[in-house]
Write a structure and sequence with these properties.
CATH architecture of the largest domain: 3-Layer(aba) Sandwich
CATH topology of the largest domain: Rossmann fold
Number of domains: 2
Strand order of the largest sheet: 2-1-3-4-5
CATH class of the largest domain: Alpha Beta
CATH superfamily of the largest domain: Response regulator
Strand content: 5-15%
Largest sheet: 5 strands, parallel
Shape: globular
Order of helices and strands: EHEHEHEHEHHHHHH
Helix content: 40-55%
């Protein structure tokens, strides 16, 4: 899949499935649904997403906060808190993990999409200064099959945290054209998701 992959961590199955259905009809794909902290950590380890939609209160406790800490320590992925609770104490605990967004249930689909898009973009911009800028000539030196200038433009937009629809709008092309470019990019850089692509690009720039 070329869409941004979202791990949904939500202990209420009906809500989780509703979210998954909504995301799959928009500019996202669902990497998995985790109903517990144990499931979430397993997915992060073996099926890393591009973004995590994370319920703060799992099984009656703030396990979502603990998952967020692990994400920050080990994976450096953007995550958005999803919760029915908006009291000051919960918000303070949530803020301490520096989430990329915060959605209070009940929520609108449009609001959810916008929050996820902003989360991807803000996370990319926040981490931009920590790594060298990507460079087409430098990257192509190490690839058996070089990426084209047009593909590199798509790469730059992914690296900047843009979704497929946003890339299509920026380049004035169809969504199918964007997906085709991303599939070729994944093949040439031996990756299968946005998160692995970004990691690969950072590795290549350090060579």
């Amino acid at each position: 899949m070329t869409e941004a992959r979202v791990l949904i961590v939500e202990d209420e199955p009906i809500i989780a499935e509703d979210i998954a259905s909504a995301l799959r009809t928009n500019d996202f794909d669902v990497s998995a649904i985790a109903y517990s902290m144990e499931d979430a950590l397993e997915e992060l380890k073996n099926n890393q997403p591009d973004l995590v939609l994370l319920d703060i209160n799992l099984n009656g406790s703030e396990e979502g906060i603990e998952i967020a800490k692990v994400i920050n320590e080990k994976y450096a992925l953007p995550f958005v808190f999803l919760t029915s609770y908006s009291d000051k104490i919960t918000l303070q605990h949530a803020k301490s993990t520096e989430p990329s967004g915060y959605v209070v249930k009940p929520f609108s689909e449009a609001g959810l999409y916008a929050t996820l898009e902003i989360a991807l973009y803000n996370h990319a911009q926040k981490n931009k200064h920590r790594f060298p800028d990507i460079n087409l000539e430098h990257i192509n030196k190490t690839l058996p099959t070089q990426i084209s200038e047009r593909e590199f433009t798509v790469v730059e937009l992914i690296y900047a945290g843009k979704t497929n629809n946003q890339i299509a709008e920026d380049l004035f092309v169809s969504i199918n054209t964007v997906k085709a470019h991303i599939k070729n990019i994944y093949l040439k850089l031996n990756t299968d998701s946005r998160s692995t692509l970004i990691l690969r690009l950072r590795e290549l720039m350090l060579l």
